[in-house]
Amino acid sequence: MGKTGKTGQPAWAKRILKLLEQAKAKDPDLVRFGAYSHKYKLSPPASEETIQKFEEQEGIRLPEEYRDFLLFVGNGGAGPYYGLYGVKTQEKELHDSHGSRLYRVQEEPVIYPKMSDEDWNRVADPEGMPGTGRRKGDEVHPYVGVLPIGSQGCTLMTGIMLAGPYRGQVVYYDEDFCGPPFFVREQGFLKWYERWLREVIAGYNDEEVGFGLNIDGTPSQLMELYEQTEDPEEKTEIIDSFYKFETLPGKQKTYFKKACAQESNMEVRMKLIKMLVRFHVPGMAKELEKLWEYGAYAEAVSIITYEGTWEVKEAWYERVFEILPRLRGEGFRDACHTISAVKDYPNVHAGRLREALNRNDLDRNDRISLFHCIKELKGKEEVLDYFLDYLSTEKDPTLLIYAVWCTEGVKDRKLQELYVRLMDKYRTHENTKFDYKGSQMVLRGGACLGASRPQGQLTSNLMRQFEYFGMDYRGGFKLLMDEGRWKEWKQQNGFGAADRLDIGK
After folding, report:
1. Where do the domains of the chain lie, and which CATH numbers do they carry?
2. In the chain, pLDDT over 70 holds for what percent of residues?
3. pTM of structure
4. How far is residue 284's CA from residue 272's CA, in Å, rounded to a whole number?
């Protein structure tokens, strides 16, 4: 494996540990996927005795590179996704709660790279394996010859091949048999592990595509690979591998924009357009019709939103309205930005977003973007009934902040009463008190200076709304904290019964 230093630790092991320190320094806040679990720390190396005992117990011989890693680097800990297992964890993973062996890891594997769905289904046959789903009669378990070495979350696992032509290669698989396994491209455990460290240090993004699922290399190296192939499948893999980068260098932008214009394979061309849009390469508006015809609506909306001139937005915003029910995530949020940008057009008003408001498949960020959009539109009274219900039932103070902000300026008595009821619920919350302790209420730009917690921010936004009803609330926090004065104020303004009503409990 390489030279051994005076301490007995091989040079390659020292190199890995040095790279690990660099990776930890690159991600001090543990924001990379799974980092909060392993924290870039390794357990002490395993002893030769520990490893031998494990091998004898399971009837296996660990691949040399992986074995040496356990022996000289660490017995589990820092690694891709949620990290690497130690030997003790591996023992548990190979047995059920009663101590029975789940499958025979020492047998010849039946899985291989790029298995077809048909071949995989023939091997897995999960419906025919009752109970633990591990065996069907005398049939071989799909993961014989695979040792689990780490978790990727839920039922997704990282393993290493123990036998056959792919011995020593890392493989990703699903314990619930949901699709064929994926064999990483690196030949050997150490290359795979070092690649992970290099990509952490380089700041590559593994959230979008998952570490190891793409091709290794820098933007320049991947471009060279693309230049050297005519195979559409290889081109697609290379294009997908660019999504690990946060930005695309100018040289690659120029090259792939030209390649896109010359590409005759429609599948590859669509991949190139999507990738160029992802990196905000200008001049892609001319591809909008092709994207729309292909069904790449999210990518088309992204171009309209961020690259489209006013002429483009004017020509396309009706189609954005049309496709909105089919969008989620980033595509949906981009569509909201486009709609708010054309807020002054006569036929753009809040009522056209009623269907979107009533969707139950939007995540938190989607709904916040939608509220931002409606805030900018005329005709908010058209969806007031929705917000009256939402403000009465929503329990998340962060979402309530945006809902209150969204209804700013709408003068309706029922809405006023809801504001007061929300104030009743949140005015004495411990986080509200924390934000405003010892200070007078100061409103600037629709928010209280210094409010940092959702409950405090919500309270400040509610105070802001009272101003729209002609009720002065400047310096009103002391009034809020004085139970007698607060009740008196409500009675003076016709809200005497509001304190008897519940919201969002």
Report:
1. 11-128+140-194 (3.40.1580.10), 214-281 (no CATH), 310-378 (no CATH), 380-505 (no CATH)
2. 85
3. 0.62
4. 11
